[in-house]
Task: structure prediction
Amino acid sequence: MLLNIVKFIKNLFSSTKLGIFLLLVIVLVAIAGTLVEQGKPVQYYYDLYGSATAGWIVKLSIDKIFGSLWMIIPTSLLIVNLIYATLSKLPVMIKSVALPKKFHHNSKINDNVLIKDKDIAIEKSSTVLKSYHYKIYTLEDGSLFAHKGVISRFGAVVVHLSILIVLLGALLGAIYGYKNYIAIDSGDTEPVPEINASIKVDRFWMNYWPDGSIKQYNSKLSIIKNNKVVHTQTIDVNHPMDYAGMRFFQAGYGKSYDKIKEAVMVLYDRQKKNVVGEPVVAQWNKWRTIGPYDIKIVDFVPDFYFDAKKGYVTSKSLEYNNPAVRLQVKGPKATPPFIWEFLKYPGFTLKSFGGKDAVIVSSITPIYYTGLQYAKNPGANWIWFGSVIMVIGFIMSFFMYYRRIYITVDDEEKSLLIAGVSYKQKDLFAKEFKKICNTLKKVEEK
Amino acid sequence: MIFSLMFFDVAFGFYVAAAISYAAYSLFRKEWIGYNSTLLFFLGFLSNIATLTARTVEVHHAPFSNLYESMIFFSAIVALIYLILEFRYKTKMFGVFLSVFLSLSFFVTNLLPFRMKVYENLNPALQSYWLEIHVATMFVGYSAFAISFIAAVLYLAKSEWHNGLMLKYLPNASVLDNLSYKSIAWGMPFLTVGIATGAVWANYTWGSYWSWDPKETWSLITWLIYAAYLHARITRGWKDKKAAILAIAGFLSMAFLYWGVSFVLPGLHSYGRA
Ligand code: HEM
Result:
């Protein structure tokens, strides 16, 4: 009983049918994974499918199907099946190509060639087969066994091995892979603990096509270690930077949400209701004189919001919906030391200034941040290696083929009996066989 | 744009004419009609190549960066493979199916939005040699699978109805089966290289080689179906009809991978829609 079960399982796992079945199961799971969007918040499924269906989707992990047991179980069985089936076929394969066989009359293709002298005839045939790149063995009874394309018998083994290599790479990636994202304002330096150094974005810029659409995003990066620049490189969307086992990608960009480059301001006379003097450009966090005042930009929010309860200013979003800068002001008249100025509402805070003067911010120049994705992928090279091996295996399986030729002298010693076998590419072999026999005939006639 | 659009129409015209001519040849079996059919098809192929060449000159990049360009590229490879087959197997009987297939392919390409037909700037992620290798190999794979699909359908028809209709003029069933297998044997390594170079490109651009986006997933599905096909053929009892059905399923999956995913499912590869 137990023995029967063991035998059943052994048979099952050595069979190609289980393999086909498992491949098709994975196909179905993968299709399900493209029909239901993956990795969305639970709410998404409730809105789209209603609570009953969504409940099942979440319970059965259909929303994360590719990392779930739905995928892991058939893949694991496939690996076991693959290894077991390949290994159990291997001895048979080796045997089938390693041992010279006796002459088979019932081989697939046959021909015969008239001869004059049996001793020379075999020798001559040997030369002919050699010229067709066959490997030749002389058997005990004096007949010839020749074969070619032995390597192709192992094509399937190579393909299967390569699949294991690719899956190993995927596994390594899943276990040891690492991925993170950091946004750094142009000009700023941020520590990146994973590489034990800091990254400074010297500059972020875009190139444009003649029609104004974006051609490329670029960041010039410096790696700083112990206050020294140890590496500098410019990356763009298709040219990442490798450093300390990590790869850095240009993954995004945007306007900084807590800083600007500079702002244009002008002095305003509240009594006369007109602008006084020329506009000035103030750099971020640098004192600038404007009329009788000294001002400095000390803060910035892209979407101003005053939380009245807590009594402080925050940003409602990261969008530039209601950008505001905070100025520090020093002046002769009684002015508050700090003041928020709104780009969209230039008159809004005028009252806050004492006396007749006010400062209006008329425009700002944003700073861009660059979004760097950084990742470590120890499995990737295994995957590339596996893919190359796989293609080699395909070529061995599909474009080479194993064939044998037997040649022996018939009982009356008047002619050579030639027989050929191939299991694949029978049409090609038939042609080659015919050519070989014709050559033999010509050689014998001489 | 003018030249590529013009050659496009010319190629379309020749393929349609070839389809009619091949059909006439199947009916009347006159040598000169057969000769004419091949000539028309060949002219279609030449105009197809001219379309691609003009397009490359006009847009300054490899001519397969959107659905419109890639369809023309795909058609050219299918036509080339067919011409080689006609020469090797000395049979014109596929001609009807192939030229109808190509005419349909040009017809749907012509239905694509006009903005695809005019010059489009490549977005930054698409300016990569890996991408060009990736797309080119994918399309050689697609083309081989298209041929295997036609052969599998004809094989099923032939083994179902034997010599009814016009089927008696087709090569016999085992030749069709063999042709289907051989096309897949060509398609499989190209599909594999295509998927792998796509992964290399994604890894180089986004920092991850595989993210299960629908296009990637469907390429894997297609690959798995063809893997099942290869095994179906070596397992006794599964040969022939079941293998042919898998070959057809593989092609349908590929067609969805190529067209369906771009229009139906969302994902990274939405450049097909652009
Ligand atoms: C459960 C998994 C699998 C099992 C059990 C399995 C088993 C087998 C077996 C028993 C053979 C026949 C070997 C011979 O006698 O020459 C074979 C051949 C082959 N297998 Fe697999 N295989 C599996 C998965 C795959 C996958 C995923 C591929 C990918 C394409 C693949 C590619 C091949 C190829 C190319 C051949 C040679 C086919 C031919 O020569 O026409 N196998 N496989």
